[in-house]
Specification:
heterotrimer; A alpha/beta; B alpha/beta; C alpha+beta; B: alpha/beta; Rossmann fold; 2 domains; eight-stranded mixed β-sheet; globular; C: alpha+beta; two-stranded antiparallel sheet; two-stranded antiparallel ribbon; 24% strand; binds thiamine diphosphate; binds iron/sulfur cluster
Chain lengths: 271, 382, 66
């Protein structure tokens, strides 16, 4: 028994994810971040969408909400505004967050409402068997891109930054320990935080794209994830598949529920 | 007595919701429902409540579902196209048993249709718009004052039965101005948020149905650590693939409403004592129908009127009784003929049911309905 | 002082991640596809297996002498 396990509903384990699926690693990082911060289980809500990754809410020992595909962020917005004391963490997949939920993601970031969105990015629609997502890299195969995807992928971190998020970080399932800190900082940030966690889906993505087994995919992360400072020093031709990790962006900006509290005060005759 | 005020149906609906304890509104602007959002934006903060304009109607219902789970009484309002967008999450509210009120000020469709024209074309969508089986409560007011009462009732039913409740307004009632006297706050009965019947330590299960078949899921942030999902779940709230639980759940969702159907069936009858013919009507059309029935009465036609406020669950028993009494039932509606199908079903051949549809952007005139009544009375019953 | 490796067979899905990352190559899959330890004494308590297991099925601990 590890101390962070109190943040799991142990009676719900083992989880439903496939052998080697990275979701379990990312979920453990969330539990460890909760432990690091000493999150109060009575005042924290986990909200998820629909997808393999979104099943995580059911394993976490808080008030938890498994919503509809793409809609976790607006549900979470309602919870936060209804009771601003609550810490609200959103668990979402790449399709959930950037395809069907893309508009909500942009507007959550725009409002800079105090939510921490943990995006489990496995570059694919896992739950439905491997269709292309907006984060499937160009050229990679999916059941709906059998000849390789011709779409250009989003960079969700750049998207969140442009939209107004105040904390943006990227980690990977391989870098499990630093991921804990990135999540903890995101939860501590008073505003919209995005933590993109690159994770492996060996079953619906890795296999089809000849990326090896789960361990092979983790090794790919270790070879291609580069701390931001080092990444910025790379020449364009050195970048290839490489991507930056760490805290990518941070700013101080008015937080939505606090701003709305001012509206209430004003309307009630205060100033 | 409070003072008389001149107000719109939409305004009365917003006021009624607030009077019943609504302190959270989320939505997206759309004619002819926008006034409800605008009033909420202005009034709620002073009451310590919250208004948020969302990025679309799906977000508009998602945000109120979230707020309701965190303890607020919540309302969203929309019209035609927005109502279509909300359907998936109306179903979510049904299965996850989340109290919530959706005001739909109907306009003419399909699609953008005739955006500023009145219609009653969402009657069937209100009942069957989301996928899967679930019951639905939908209430349709015919006056400004009743828009207030219906809003209070909708909020109370949503809380009591932990289910989404739809207010079916139409452009006629929503935008009509009438002088109304609203009840005093202390005279308004409010159904409070249901609370857990025991603690986590005592084995609390959020979805255990109580005697009224309605469960008491705890509000988030009250220390119960509950799980809420749109998947079929057992009493613990966690998903299960069990056929038995699935069947029982779908059955219970229906029964929690059907067992109180008589109580929640609201309607009025006019001139029905000696009626040989009846006009079955609802919403804005009922106002014209009432004038038409009076005109027909002056001509000596024994016609009465039944006005449904509760559209869903459908007033089968009421219609059955009417069908046993009269020869013919006329159903004027601002659509191609929707609720008439239910009337036919419930009348079960005991009376002839005649549809009087209208779908050309214009509202009925009393003359039009009166002429239809005259035709009823002259035609020989086959 | 020895090292104790605990494996929870009911949770292990045999994904092989722990074995692939074990620097001492002392983890393997049995015929049922579950993890087992080939040589506990060789373990250096690096924690790689526990860190990377997606199923919380393997734990490493320094044995406390009683
Ligand atoms: C409205 C709606 N459309 C489609 C689906 C089917 N669906 C379920 S999960 C999913 C994709 C999930 O992919 P992602 O969000 O990347 O999560 P993952 O399963 O990879 O963790 C889809 C398309 C659905 N449940 N609801
Ligand atoms: S399909 Fe992929 S994402 Fe889903 S559980 Fe399996 S490995 Fe994980
Ligand atoms: S990493 Fe975990 S689940 Fe995978 S084989 Fe090892 S112990 Fe089993
Ligand atoms: S702690 Fe290190 S050496 Fe020991 S079994 Fe685990 S991975 Fe191998």
């Amino acid at each position: 028994m590890r101390s962070y396990e109190k943040y799991f509903r142990m009676n719900r384990l083992p989880h439903i994810w496939c052998p080697g699926c990275g979701n379990g690693i990312v979920m453990k990082s969330i539990a460890k971040a909760a432990e690091q911060l000493g999150l109060d289980q009575d005042n924290t809500v986990i909200v998820s969408g629909i997808g393999c990754s979104s099943r995580a809410s059911g394993y976490m020992n808080f008030d938890t909400l498994h919503t509809a595909h793409g809609r976790a962020i607006p549900f979470a917005t309602g919870i936060k505004l209804a009771n601003p004391k609550l810490k609200v963490i959103v668990i979402t997949g790449d399709g959930d967050c950037t395809a069907i939920g893309g508009n909500h993601f942009i507007h959550g970031a725009r409002r800079n409402i105090d939510l921490t969105v943990i995006l489990f990015n496995n570059n694919i629609y896992g739950m439905t068997g491997g269709q292309a997502s907006p984060l499937t890299p160009t050229g990679k195969k999916a059941t709906t891109a059998p000849f390789g995807s011709v779409d250009t992928a989003f960079d969700p971190c750049e998207l969140a930054k442009a939209a107004g998020a105040s904390y943006i970080a990227r980690g990977t399932a391989f870098h499990a320990k630093p991921l804990v800190d990135l999540i903890a900082q995101g939860i501590s940030n008073n505003g919209f935080s995005l933590v993109e966690a690159i994770t492996q889906c060996p079953i619906s993505y890795g296999r089809r794209n000849k990326m090896g087994d789960a361990a092979g995919m983790l090794k790919w992360m270790s070879e291609n994830a580069v701390p931001l400072a080092a990444y910025e020093k790379l020449a364009e031709e050195q970048k290839g598949d490489k991507f930056p990790i760490g805290v990518l962006y941070q700013k101080t900006a008015p937080e939505y529920s606090a701003e709305y509290a001012k509206v209430i005060k004003l309307a009630q005759g205060g100033k | 007595m409070s003072q008389a005020r001149l107000m719109q149906g939409n305004e009365a609906c917003a006021e009624g919701a607030m009077a019943a304890g609504v302190n959270f509104f989320g939505g997206y602007p759309i004619t002819p429902s926008t006034e409800i959002a605008e009033i909420m934006a202005k009034e709620l903060p002073a009451l310590g409540g919250t208004f948020i304009q969302m990025e679309d109607e799906i977000a508009g219902i998602a945000v109120v579902l979230g707020a309701a789970l965190a303890g607020r009484k919540a309302l969203t309002a929309t019209s035609g196209p927005g109502f279509s967008l909300k359907q998936e999450l109306i179903g979510y509210g049904c299965i996850a048993e989340i109290p919530l009120v959706i005001a739909n000020v109907q306009r003419m469709g399909p699609a953008t249709g005739q955006p500023t024209s009145p219609a009653q074309g969402d009657v069937m969508q209100a009942r069957w718009g989301t996928h899967g089986d679930h019951p639905m409560i939908a209430l349709s007011p015919w006056t400004v004052r009743e828009s207030f009462d219906v809003a209070v009732m909708a909020v109370n039913y949503a809380e009591r039965f932990r289910t989404p409740v739809i207010i079916l307004l139409d452009e006629v009632v929503g935008h009509m101005r009438e002088k109304v006297v609203l009840p005093k706050a202390e005279d308004i009965e409010i159904y409070p948020r249901r609370k857990p019947n025991c603690t986590r330590e005592e084995g609390y299960k959020p979805y255990t149905p109580m005697a009224d078949l309605v469960p008491n899921p705890a509000d988030f942030g009250t220390g119960h650590h509950i799980h809420v999902t749109g998947l079929i779940h057992d009493e613990t709230g966690f998903p299960t693939g069990s056929s038995k639980v699935t069947e029982d759940t779908i059955q219970r969702l229906h029964q929690k409403i059907s067992r109180v159907q008589d109580e929640i069936t609201h309607y009025d009858e006019f001139f029905m004592e000696d009626a040989e013919y009846a006009v079955l009507t609802y919403g804005g059309t009922a106002r014209t129908a009432y004038a038409a029935v009076k005109m027909a009465r002056q001509q000596g036609i024994k016609v009465g009127m039944v006005r449904l406020m509760t559209i869903w669950p459908f007033a089968d028993k009421v219609i059955k009784k009417v069908a046993q009494k009269v020869k013919k039932i006329l159903v004027p509606e601002m659509n191609y003929g929707q609720l008439v199908l239910e009337v036919e079903r419930a009348a079960a051949g005991q009376a002839a049911v005649i549809s009087l549809p209208k779908y050309n952007t214009e509202i009925f005139t009393p003359k039009e309905i009166c002429t239809a009544i005259e035709e009823l009375a002259t035609e020989v019953v086959k | 002082m020895g090292i104790e490796i605990t494996t929870l067979k009911e949770r292990c899905k045999g994904c092989n991640i722990c074995a692939a990352f074990c620097p001492k190559k002392i983890l393997a899959m049995d015929t049922l596809g579950k993890v087992y330890v080939t040589d506990e004494k060789a373990c250096i308590n690096c924690g790689q297996c526990e860190l990377r297991c997606p199923d919380y099925a393997i734990y490493v601990e320094k044995k406390v002498e009683k």
